[in-house]
Amino acid sequence: MQQGRARPRRRAVIQLGVQRNIGFATVLDVAYVGSVARNLMWQRNINQVPYGANFAAANQDPSNPGRPLPINFYRPYPGYGTISYREFAGSSNYHSLQTQANRRFAKGLQFGFSWTWSKLMNFAEGNFNDVATYAPLRAWNYGKGGFDRTHNVNINYAWDLPRASSMWNNGLVRTVLDGWQLSGITTFMSGAPLGVSLATTDNADIAGGGDGVRTVMLANPVLPKSEQKLTRFFNTEAFGRPATGSFGNAPKDVFRGPGINNWDASLMKNIGLPMEGHRLQFRAEFYNVFNHTQFSDVDTAARFDVAGRQVNTRFGQLIAARSPRQIQFSLRYSF
C-alpha cells in the first residue's frame, strides 16, 4: 500500500440563526447551518487495469484464444495485485435549515418540536473507501452521503394529566386516578439514499476492467407514494443491463429507502407512601405504540440474464422491518 502525502483537513462551519419568544412560554429558533470539509481521505487502486483492457488483443492468452492472460500480467505495475493509494483529496458539504420550538414546563405541559431540512453530499463515506480510478470521478462517486436524511422531525412532550379528583373528590379517586403523567417522543424521518447493484446470470465481463459496472438508467426509479407497494417499492423497469464494453450510467444513489414514522410513549404515576420519603413509581412504556409496520430494507440487487431481462424476483421488494410494538411495565420503590 502506498500512502499519499498528508495534508491538514480543513473544515468551515457557517451558522446563522434567529430566536424569538412567541408567547405561551415557547421559544422559536430558526437557523441555517452549513459546513464544507476539504482534504478528506479516500483511496484509489492505482494498479487497476483500464476499461477494455481484458478485451485488448495484446492481453489475450495465446494458449487459450478468446480469454485474456491473468490480470497481473498487464496491470500498470505488472506482477502486483491491488495497490491502494491513500490521499487527502476528498470533500463533503452539508446545508440545512434547522427549526426548533420549545415550551418550558408550565401549567403541567412541556413540549419540544424540531425539524431539520438538509442535504449532505460527499465522495466517500469513510477514510478507506475506494473511489474511481478511470470512471468519471464526480459521476461515479459524488452523491448523497449514506447518513443524509432530507427531513428529520422530532416531537417530545410531557403532560400532567388533569386530576380526576377535581370532579370526583374522594380518597379512592385521588389514589387511583390522580398524579398521572403522559410523555413521549415522535419521530418522522426520510429514508437513506440507496444505490442498485448489478449481477448477471452468465457472469459476463461487461467492461473488460476498470472500476466496475453499474446498471443503465432507463427512467426515473422513484414511484409516487400512491404507487409504492410491498412488492414494488421503486420502479424496477427503470434499470437495464449495460452493453458489453460500457460501464453503465447509474449514480451511487438512485432513490431513498423506507423512512421512519415512530411513536414512543410512557404513562407514569408517583404514589406516596405513609412513611416519610418513601414512594412508589409505576411506569408503562410503549415503543412503536401504534404498531406501525416500519420497513427498514429493500432488495436493490438487479440480476440480468443474457437477453437483458431482470430475473431477481425479489428486486424492488421490501424485505426487512423495524421492531413491532413493545410494551414494558416497571414499579420502582424509592426511600
Keywords:
two-stranded antiparallel sheet; 19 strands; eleven-stranded mixed β-sheet; mainly beta
What does this structure look like?
This protein is mainly β and 335 residues long. It is 4% helix and 45% strand. The protein is built from 2 helices and 19 strands. The strands form 5 sheets. Strands 1, 2, 3, 4, 5, 6, 7, 8, 14, 15 and 19 form an 11-stranded mixed beta sheet that branches. Strands 9-13 form a two-stranded antiparallel ribbon. The radius of gyration is 29 Å and the shape is elongated. It starts with a strand and ends with a strand. 15% of the residues are buried.
Strand content: 35-45%
Which bin fits the share of residues in helices? under 10%
SSE run: EEEEEHEEHEEEEEEEEEEEE
What is the overall silhouette?
elongated
Give the number of DSSP strands. Answer: 19
- What characterizes the major β-sheet? 11 strands, mixed
Which structural class should the secondary elements be placed in?
Answer: mainly beta
Number of helices: 2
* Uncertain segments: none
Termini distance?
A: 62 Å
Alpha-carbon Rg, integer: 29 Å
Quote the average pLDDT: 92
How would you summarize the topology of this molecule?
Elements: E1 2-3, E2 10-23, E3 26-45, E4 84-106, E5 109-122, H1 137-141, E6 143-144, E7 151-160, H2 171-177, E8 180-189, E9 193-194, E10 197-200, E11 216-217, E12 239-240, E13 255-256, E14 260-272, E15 279-287, E16 295-298, E17 301-304, E18 318-321, E19 326-334
Parallel strand pairs: 1-4, 10-17
Antiparallel strand pairs: 2-3, 3-4, 4-5, 5-6, 5-7, 7-8, 8-14, 9-13, 11-12, 14-15, 15-19, 16-18
